[in-house]
Amino acid sequence: MARNLLFSCMVAFTAAMHAALVSHAANAEGPAYRTHLAGVGLQDPRQKVDAMQPPWSAVGRVQTELGSRCTGFLIAPNVVETAGHCLWLSHVRGFVRPESVHFLRAYTGDHYMAHARAVQIIIPPVTEQIRKAIVAG
Length: 137
Description:
The protein is α+β, with helices and mostly antiparallel strands. 15% of the residues lie in helices and 36% in strands. A hairpin with a 2-residue loop joins strand 5 and strand 6. The N and C termini lie far apart (42 Å).
């Protein structure tokens, strides 16, 4: 069940979304877990964590309906932090509409804990100054 979130470069979601982000697991399509990554090798010293358990469950996938995908993380029950470039549309020199942004909590490539849709994108003041400079040319 989709809930609303608020995205800010932070992204914020409605308070009701917190229950959705905690409530149910769901399947997501994606690649199978790989045994190693290029550049890391077979003797990978990293340890796999349980993405469904705190604090790792606060990390998830931010994606837009235009196809962009980034990492985001909960900084409050209804606010997700992500990088500004993940929500920026260079061809229109502006940010995506909030309703086109989704957060998949505890996304692992084939599963996620919860889904929420953004209701607002909050642009920090420094980022807003940079955006105005870009738009002005």
